[in-house]
Amino acid sequence: MESDGTSNLRVVIDEILKEDLEKVHAQRARQRGRSSQKELGHFQEITLLSHEWQLIKDLNDELKYFFLLTKKMEGDGPTGSAAIPEYLQLKNHLKKKSSSLHRGDPLHPMFVKMFEKTDTYLKEALECENLVISTILNPSFRLALFESHFPKEALEAKKRLVKLFEERKTQMVEKVLQEEHAKDTPANKENKTIDENIY
Fold first, then answer.
1. What pTM does this model have?
2. Three state DSSP letters for the chain
3. What are 46-97's pLDDT values in tens digits?
């Protein structure tokens, strides 16, 4: 174990080294700016310091989750039943991130805005009957997802499911009755008799 004095000393040394490195980077950038415009690359006269690169890395690490989620939802397979659970998981992730960061953190406003946007998309998804029913019919989620996370919407979702089931049941009964009725017509009886008397 390190003593507090040793860890404080390391922090001070790290800060001194960072400051020196930033000064060197700034000096090199100024020299490049004077010597040749062509050497500047696509960053032109902008010089990023080490702590700014760390912020960019942090941002990229956070955006990686959204990139993977987008790829998953754009995939070749059906994703309708995963939309509501993915939005819910994303909303919870963003809520944790925004509450764990202090307001002065550069990424905090991004998480707050993304949380608000995700909440809007989740509400829209909950209003889409196709997404609700496909989520309920997915064995991984069923109605339990709605009962645990969306108690207000759970009763309505169950009513939708029962209504669709009854409609489909009625359609199936009508189809069976029509097929039976079609079998009983005199023309079908004649055709059946002709088919039976081949010899």
1. 0.58
2. CCCHHHHHHHHHHHHHHHHHHHHHHHHHHHHHHHHCCHHHHHHCCCCCCHHHHHHHHHHHHHHHHHHHHHHHHCCCCCCHHHHHHHHHHHHHHHHHHHHHCCCCCCCHHHHHHHHHHHHHHHHHHHHCHHHHHHHHHCCCCCCHHHHHHCHHHHHHHHHHHHHHHHHHHHHHHHHHHHHHHHHCCHHHHHHHHHHHCCC
3. 777 788 888 888 888 888 888 888 888 787 777 888 889 999 999 998 998 8
